[in-house]
Structure formats: C-alpha cells, structure tokens
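agent> Task received from the user: take the single chain below, predict its 3D structure, and emit structure tokens. No templates, no multimer pairing.
agent> Plan: (1) validate residues, (2) run structure prediction, (3) serialize to tokens, (4) report one or two observations.
agent> Step 1 OK, no nonstandard residues flagged.
tool_call: predict_structure(input=
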Amino acid sequence: MSRLNFDNAFVRDLPGDPEQGSRQRQVLGAVYSRVHPTPVAAPRVVAWSAEMAQVLGWDAADLESPELAQVLGGNALLEGMAAGLPMIATDVGGNSEALEDGVSGVVVPARDPRRLADAILHLARDADLRKRIGTAACERVSRSFTLEACVQSYDLFYRGLLSGQRPGDIAHVQIR
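)
tool_result: status=success, residues=176
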C-alpha cells in the first residue's frame, strides 16, 4: 500500500442533513448529520496500527496512556505541544492562536477531511518535519503558554492600560 487515497465518498455521494449543529432532532431522508465537535469526556485509543506507531516513534505504553488519548481526542493541544508532538488541529476555537501553521503545528480548515488527511500523511511521511514542528511546538509552549508568560502578559497589559494605551495597541499582549 504505497499510496493512500482518502476519498470521502460517503459524504460526497449520500444525502446529508441540511442543518448543521449539535441539537437533537429527527433527521429524515439523510444518512448523516454534521455536528460541531465537543470535547471527548474520556477518550481512549481503541485501535492503532503498529506500523504507524513505529513511524511516529510511539510504543505500546504510549498508545495506552490516558495523556495521549487526551491529545488525540483534541482535549489537550497545549499538552501535546509541550510534549514535543507535531500537532495537527482544525481551525476552531483558539487552535490557530496556539499553533503557528507550518511552524509549531499544522492548522487545517474545520470540516475538511481531505485537508486533514493530507496533513496527517504529509507529517507521517516526513520525519524531519515532524521533529522540527514538535521542537518548535515545545518551544512555543515554553515561551508563550507557561504561567510565567501568562503573568508577564497580564502585567504588560495592565501597565499599558495604566499608561493610557488602548487594549488593541498593546503589542505585548499578542501571543508570540
């Protein structure tokens, strides 16, 4: 299997619910509904490929760890970055603020399975890129998302306000 092809024929060829959202409803004449993702309460890794785990440098203990399940379940983006994992996230919530696309992670459009699959394959095939992104992600968390960095940002923000600056003009508040 030298080349994987992700063809989302299910969504392309079958009728879907025209309404998007997570509210409960009866759906007639459709075989699927698009919903907005919500955090997974207790994610678990239930199946994996030993071959892909080897490519990613994971062993059985990694695959059975609750922490990795949280990361893969989308509940722990910063924790994954801090662990040096090359993270891929959809452009929802604050994900694009946490990750610098192409530098400290990969951001793909929400609800675009083809782009997500392409990003996964691209990272899976390039060990050097995985290492560079993972290292940059870890450095970004250390630089911008520690308690010390957060306190420093608040301090600079309030000092700027006290000196008469408007909130949008205080450059140090921007995530670096």
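agent> Step 4: summary for the user.
Residues 16 and 30 are 5 Å apart (CA to CA).
agent> Done.
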